[in-house]
Amino acid sequence: MATAPKIVALTAGGPHAWIMINTLQEHFGDFPIIREEGESQATLWRRRRKLLGPLTVASMQAARIPIKLTSKGSQDTIARLIAREKLEPEPRSGANLIEVPSVNSDQCRATLKSLDPKAVFVVSTRMISKKTLASIDAPFINYHSGINPAYRGMFGGYFALANGEPEHFGATVHLVDHGVDTGDILYQSRLRAEPEDNFHTYLWRMAAGSRDIVVRAMEDALNGSLRPQKVDLPSKQYFAPTLGGYLWSGLSRGVW
Fold this sequence. Notes:
Layout: E1 7-11, H1 15-28, E2 33-36, H2 41-52, H3 54-69, H4 75-85, E3 97-100, H5 106-115, E4 119-123, H6 130-133, E5 140-144, E6 152-153, H7 156-162, E7 170-175, E8 185-190, H8 202-223, E9 237-238, H9 243-253
Parallel strand pairs: 1-2, 1-4, 2-3, 4-5, 6-9
Antiparallel strand pairs: 5-7, 7-8
Helix pairs in contact: 1-8, 2-3, 3-9
């Protein structure tokens, strides 16, 4: 009988997801990666309109225009980070990828049950349902690009800087529960953005500086020594910058 893997990863992919998964594979050896199909932009924006209202969402969509204008100038910064930090932002050749339609599909739950890991590493997926979380007896441990609970949701590093709180520029590794980045915290990284950074590079900067806390959390999970804790910060969920918010932060704080 084949030995069950100690770790399984759940992801929809993306550069910072592969950076973390490849770091774990460097440390723990190869393990299966369950990759879900990403949600469509139409589905994402439809859900935001229902939650936030059409005017706010229209402003978020408008902000994508000036944000996109800074993309080209960011590629050199990203390239330097990849080279200096030896980042691997793509799946490795020969990676054991298992494709599923969603982390909440019967196919994903059946795969998790058959693999029976000791711990599940989660990065860049949709919200995981109670049914999936209960499908196996193992902790689900998420990497989040923001300091929880103050910067739950999306673009936590950007919003920390935009709010004038550079001390909260960093990432969190936490247990997954039924909320949006509300699970008990395992480790956090506190990092510094560089003058050349912007909206496109913050995720890369945080990923480069947070690989160690991902390894430590998964080591704890495999050793049975997880130490979840609460952090005494106000709790707020973020989505995407609005046009007015993005321009104000850029002009007043130099945060683009």
